[in-house]
Amino acid sequence: MDRIGIIGYGKMGKLFAREFTRKFDVAICSEHAEKEEFRTFSSVEELFNWADVIVIAKSLGETPQVLEELAELSERGAGKIIFDISTFKRDIVEIYKRFPKSVKVCSVHPMFGAGAGSLKGRRFMVIPVEGREKDIYPVINLLREFQAEIFVTDAKTHDEMVKITIGIPYFMAVAYLSFLSEFEGLENFGGTSFKYLTTYSKAVLNDSPPFIREVLEFSRDKIKEFLGFIEEGEFNIEELRKKFEHEIEESYRRFYRALED
To answer: Which residue in 31, 41, 132, 176 has the most C-beta neighbors within 10 A?
Structure first.
């Protein structure tokens, strides 16, 4: 395993290219790639023929088409390792079932954004393809070379949890900023909570509008469930304090440290 090819050169593609080039020969297939920095290929087929490992770092909408092309190419490409880094896996893992057994395939979700300084200590969710569970080990070994933290789960569990951990927070960010835009001069009345929430909400906008819309659309059922929970309005503050009593003070200190950075 010496050559890693990355299909896509958005923010996450750039992060992976920068990190992988520390230990491997890296090439990019994207019209946005910087030819001076990396070897580039103009087609998926050219990159496939060159690479030992192929990482798909395209949008959720584009990834299935790329995987379909790779599935065909894999009929004559034994020994390749192929994985994507899409946020949701529901449809992705089904396509992997059509790949020949001569290649290793799985799906991966980096649980961090492009602002990460490195892969060291970062958590990756690795999702096996049903019936091909052993295919994950070459990918896990690759990520552990960069001292990443690995968590293995199935596609259904992954998607349901990510709707809650990413989908609902993104919804809250977009909804909060949209609601704030109806008022003038709020900054004069905002304290630490306002600053923290608006900072987070604006940070979400660092992602592209198509990606944000994809997250909200895929998370629609959990967002509706969340809104129904809010509508009921039965919050037991005392019970919450009891449940998290050992974390409250440290969380408050971290809250202020985050604002001071």
So the answer is: 41
**Do 89 and 202 lie in a common domain?**
no
Mean pLDDT by 10 residues, the chain (261 residues): 92 93 94 73 95 95 95 91 95 94 96 90 96 96 96 97 98 97 90 93 94 95 96 91 94 88 66
**Which of 153, 186, 217 lies at the terminal end of a domain, its last residue?**
153
User: Is the CB of residue 6 less than 8 Å from the CB of residue 13?
Assistant: yes
Structural domains of the chain, count: 2
CATH code at 79? 3.40.50.720
Residues 6+ apart with CB under 8 A from 90: 155, 156, 159, 218
Tell me the pTM: 0.89
Q: Which domain holds residue 148?
A: 3-153
| End-to-end Cα separation, the chain, in angstroms | 40
